[in-house]
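Most newcomers find our protein records easier to grasp once they have seen one. A learned vocabulary of local backbone shapes supplies the integers on the structure line. An example says more than a description, so a record of this kind follows:
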Amino acid sequence: VARTDRLILRVRREEVAPRVEVLVDASRSMAITQAKRERVRELGELLPRLARAQGLTPAVFWLGAVPRRVDGPLPDDFEAKHALPALLPRVALRPCGVRVVLSDLLFDIPLQPLVRRLADGAARLVLVQVLDASDEDPEGGEGARLVDSETGEALDRLLGPEVLERYRTRLAAHQAALDGEARRVRAAVCRVSAAQELEACVRERLAGELLEPRTRVG
């Protein structure tokens, strides 16, 4: 201003490489059935391919017993005893990219800090919630042993209509809370059924959030 008598605003632009970060929840609950295990691994391998097809650099993080970046085929060790929120600090995420999380997101913790942590620094956040039929609509019976897949703790419980109805009510409330927190940070939530074929998952659930209209699944 002093030299030119005009107001000049200098804008510095940082050069960043477009990047897609895929966080794969490899806790034991993600492999509670073979269908759920396969769907998570298929999506975890497909998303980097789609990123490369759109000129983006993928970075896949396997949040297992030892969180690590994976270059190549995904491991098969769904052995993390800690849930995804506890493993996030051990992953070096970078800003300005698209961040995709593959998880069932069934955490009994306040969701706001988790969703904000996942969205921090990301240009876009997509939460892909992979659920098995037993997650969405468990069956009842005379009795059942409920086992925590992470800790191994067991509880013998009669799964009658009232218990199942309370579970469905809590699940619906959890889903609504997750959707609300995602809206706060302008993230997208895509729900995928493990029983659904991979191509149908992508075309019906993920195409609008992850793929350009010109991209085809092949």
